[in-house]
What we know:
Helices cover 80% and strands 0% of the residues. By secondary structure, the chain is an all-alpha fold.
Amino acid sequence: xxxxxxxxxxxxxxxxxxxxxxxxxxxxxxxxxxxxxxxxxxxxxxxxxxxxxxxxxxxxxxxxxxxxxxx
Length: 71
């Protein structure tokens, strides 16, 4: 699983929040304005979205090991 596939597994909300930070390079305040929320709420959503992406990437990396353990 590569980054693009892991990104595709994110919810629309997670993808939007990460996109504002990564691709649009907006500040927390700017991103919050786009989303109609506070900067603090945006930061929480961003943290959760990053964690979800990490889980998807880590889960994919662990899959071959799991298959080997089940043989």
